[in-house]
Design a protein that fits this description.
Blueprint lengths: L6 H17 L4 H7 L15 E7 L4 E8 L10 E4 L8 H10 L2 E3 L5 E3 L9 E6 L8 E2 L8 H6 L15 H5 L7 H11 L2 H6 L16 H5 L3 H4 L4 H9 L9
Parallel strand pairs: 3-6
Antiparallel strand pairs: 1-2, 2-6, 2-7, 4-5
Helix pairs in contact: 1-10, 3-6
Amino acid sequence: MAKEASSNTVCLLLLNLLVSSIAARPSKDEAANAKITTLPGQPTDASFAQYSGYVTINEKKKLFYWLVEASSDAESKPLLLWLNGGPGASTIGYGAFQEIGPFQILPDGKLSKRQFAWNTEANLLFLDSPAGAGFSILNERAMQDEAFMNEIGDVNNFNLYMRPSASPIQDLMYRDGFGYYSDNDTINYLRRREVQEAFHIDPSYIPVNYTLDSDLVQNSYIESDTESSMLPVLKELVEAHLRIWIYR
């Protein structure tokens, strides 16, 4: 009698499915549809290939991905899957644009090349997960509720006593991390229609009122979820010889 698959095994199989479905060599038509010609404000000397689109989980869920090839020798470089936590934090907004991706968003809406971008060493696969986070779709994805932000106004969650500054020097202090100004720049950029079109966002959802953190996901994160340990899943990934890096 076959042993019933555990939920951890299902998670592992799902991860393998996601990675293989995106990283596998696509047909010419699929590659052409997924390829990003250029992002608005992208530096002209950025010569690496980029792809984006959706992985359909079921009729209610679609996960958005952005695949950035290594800047050199992409065929021989490893594939790195990057997921942000939260729950509900956008991997595209945080991981890609504020942490390790090839571009940084400037206050004027243009992109600059990140000095220490990780795609110098690997092909980067950013996945907005779970469904409902970032550009990923859950059911009929409604506009995100901005009542909270409208209520508290322009507050820096990392320093409640810091006032917004017009100083470009102080602005640059926050350019490369979890900063107030970086958040605003990222949100403003990813809300632009031409940016969403370049990323191949589902046209039925354009314009998406993009947020870095999904209230939809956070509000559905019930107490029972916190009682489930990820250690069994991590054990299976390690046994499958997949290297994992976790940090907070």
